[in-house]
Amino acid sequence: MTSYDIHWDRVISHLPWREIPESMEAVQTEWQTFLRDEYDLSIGDNVFISEEAVVDLPNGRIGDGTIIASGAIVRGDVTIGANCSVNPYVNVAGKVTVGDGVRIASTASLWGENHVFADPDTPIHQQGNRYEGIEVGDDVWIGAGAVVLDGTAMGSHSVIGAGAVVTSDVPEYAIVVGNPGTIVGYRGESNGPDSGSDLRDRLSQFGEMVAEQVSNVISTHQRNAPDGNLPDHPDSTPVRALCDAVEIAGMFDETPPGWNRTELIEELQELQDPDTGLLPNSGENPSKDHDPTTLPPEWRPYHILSVGYALEVLGETFEHRISAVDNLSPEDLYEHLEELPWETNAWGCGAWIDHYATGLYFNHRYFDSDRSPASVFGWLETSIDPDTGLWGKPTADEGWLQPVNGFYRATRGTYAQYGLEVPFPEATIDTVLRHGRDSTHFREGPRNACNTLDVVHPLWLCGQQTDYRRDEIEKWARIQLDQVLDHWRNGQGFAFELTDEPATLQGTEMWLSVVYLLAELCGMSGELGYKPRGVHRTDVGFDLYRQ
Predict the structure, then answer these.
(1) CA atoms within 13 A on the CB side of 251
(2) Could you tell me which of 307, 306, 240, 246 has the C-alpha nearest to residue 271?
(3) CB–CB of 494/486 below 8 Å?
(4) Which residue, 130, 178, 265, 438, is most buried by CB atoms nearer than 10 A?
(5) What is the bridge-based pairing of β-strands 48-49 and 67-68?
(6) Which residues, at least 6 apart from 241, have a Cβ–Cβ distance to it below 8 Å?
């Protein structure tokens, strides 16, 4: 090989976007074969990996057309999409997922790992590492010398300026500069959040449109339901669907069309079992011999919420105390909360607390119960993780979905309902925003009403206590509104998932509530002309000590 060939091989190794000469193709084939065999590494077509790069990727993946230049160090649990460039002297380490079309400029660093240093009496090198991970969306440009720290996510189409230090999540299309990284704008006015005046106009027009159509939407679902029983969403029940209709109409100070208010109240009250206070579906006769800690599915524990609040919207309440809740001793309650599967199913655990605490709420407000909620609040206060502001842990398959959704359910029935402050609002905001950038649930594929609500409500609830990261929260909310408002279907409402699936009453009630909460985060909810009135209302704040 001549000095000329050596020179150009080194040039290409550092600048691999140039045309690869034939003299390097055989070397690349041999080098990539070695990497595949050594690391079980998946390498796409038309990939260039410099022999002068450090590549240590067990079970990793590099997509089609991606280049890794000389001097780059790429190691750990790393996945890189198609048509990306990892330029000279870039560091990518730890747990990092990079989308398609991402440009990472020279000397930038993505550190998807961090040392544990909490114990001052133990040398740092003996405390191990933690790996929260970095997520980079599609079409992101990370400038020269930028540093991206563990536990952050960069939304698709965002730009990280040269030398910026990214310590928190970056919304889609955002432009970030400085140390710490600060959002200074968005790429393209049409892609960024609406201006204040534009968004106010959209919300006002949306609210007027829904108000004009709401009666017809409910009537349409009732006409399409067999026997008028409204078996609405596949995961819903006829009772839940009827209560959704009451809540949707109640947002606009109306009663569901075709229903007499007195008959509605009687139908809902008749669902309650007088002995337990629990509520099966109409026509179901579950056994009354049950363990009160289980609130078993055949008793439909969510009906405590849906039926109870629907009755309140109609100006009434249950006829019977929910004795299944009051009969649970503080000792049994504590033991049950300790035994719940918080590590794997924090969402379900939070739901149990929501059902229990809402039963307490109705018993205190309407039946003079002497069962104090202090026990459930005591457990929540002493069991919360102060570093995340949540209960439970992320899971390998779903990330933070379980604990974030569980936080919403647990706090909806407790802190929000009783008007109390959550213990660690800033830590909660950090974790919830991180989850809100999760590509699995929010940037790729259809998003559903439940997962979106369970992010929006905690951000709103914590925002009642602190202005922490308020600008980021508002910009995130604007982006969500931009993506949700156009999915309303005239005469039908919202689908539960923003896809081509049929619109439902459950989807309509939940998305209308989500839109209201998002608008609240932007200080514009008054433009809508409606407020959630039932399960998802924002003005509960029940103080049992003043009742």
Answers:
(1) 33
(2) 307
(3) no
(4) 438
(5) parallel
(6) 221, 225, 229, 230, 231, 232, 233, 504, 505, 506
Query: Each residue of 125-165: pLDDT tens digit?
Result: 888 888 889 999 999 999 999 999 999 999 899 999 999 99
Please name the residues in contact with 479: beta carbons below 8 A apart, sequence gap of 6 or more: 171, 172, 173, 193
What average pLDDT does range 71-81 have in this prediction? Answer: 94
Quote the pTM value.
0.70
Is pLDDT at 65 greater than 70 in this prediction?
yes
The Cα–Cα gap between 222 and 231 comes to 9
Among 28, 65, 21, which residue's Cα sits nearest to residue 49?
28
Alpha-carbon span 454 to 480, nearest angstrom:
13
Q: Look at residue 194 and tell me whether its pLDDT is greater than 60.
A: no
Single-letter amino acid code for the residue at 61? R
User: In the Cβ-directed half-sphere of 179, how many Cα atoms lie within 13 Å?
Assistant: 9
How many whole angstroms separate alpha carbon 438 and alpha carbon 452? 12
| Phi, psi (deg, nearest 5) at residue 504 | -135, 165
Say if residues 72 and 53 touch (Cβ distance below 8 Å). yes
- Residue 165 backbone dihedrals phi, psi, to 5 degrees: -120, 110
DSSP code of residue 494 = -
Burial grade of 274 (CB within 10 A; 0-12, 13-18, 19 or more)? exposed
- How far apart CA 207 and CA 230 sit, in angstroms, is 25
Instruction: Give first-to-last CA distance, the chain, whole Å.
Output: 90
